Known about the structure:
The strands form three sheets. Strands 6-5-8-3-10 form a five-stranded antiparallel beta sheet, with no helix packed on it. It contains two helices and twelve strands, in the order H-E-E-E-E-E-E-E-E-E-E-E-E-H. The longest helix is centred in the last third of the chain and has 40 residues, at about 230-269. The termini are close together. Helix 1 packs antiparallel against helix 2 (about 230-269). The chain is of the alpha+beta class.
Amino acid sequence: xxxxxxxxxxxxxxxxxxxxxxxxxxxxxxxxxxxxxxxxxxxxxxxxxxxxxxxxxxxxxxxxxxxxxxxxxxxxxxxxxxxxxxxxxxxxxxxxxxxxxxxxxxxxxxxxxxxxxxxxxxxxxxxxxxxxxxxxxxxxxxxxxxxxxxxxxxxxxxxxxxxxxxxxxxxxxxxxxxxxxxxxxxxxxxxxxxxxxxxxxxxxxxxxxxxxxxxxxxxxxxxxxxxxxxxxxxxxxxxxxxxxxxxxxxxxxxxxxxxxxxxxxxxxx
Length: 269
């Protein structure tokens, strides 16, 4: 009799779990993907290099033209950089205290203000704060640039809608580590990137004029598409239809099984 009771309780538990799972009924089919946002430089070495992490406390901003990101909202959860071809050996580095931010900006490439705050949009978001450890194997396919293996995983993703403006990356580096390595960059007036930098102060108000440049890092972003409201609603309706249909079927089958168990249990009593 105790065995029968346990079987009934197990069936009821399984039914509860299945109902909970089926009630969710919505699956996000969007897949994360990586792409290079800087003027089709996926397979071409940039024409310059940048000591991205200068050996002082510093503040850095780079703008990316919205045209590089398509026309739909995305979630950005990672950035990756690659070594310049001038690097000859693998390397690693640790930045003890650094913050990364993103925002939408109305400023265009080659038109960033030397006043940092004037480049920042209303959705200014801190995506990383702390110690950044990174490394590079300094390798790549023959005849191609090095791999994007200098990676920063965000602790908070950034939601970006290219229709609302260009993308602004910022870091505030509070410690003076020296990496001694160069990162692949592009120096072309009128392209999709440009930078402003202040050396010596992570909270600087103004960029150093001699560090304001059309130069920009070749950057790879990991992004996940965000469904538009209309398509999201459609996915909910479709998932709900199939979820409810499956739920009814499963509940009917489970109900029959449980009734049979209860009947058998009563018969033994």
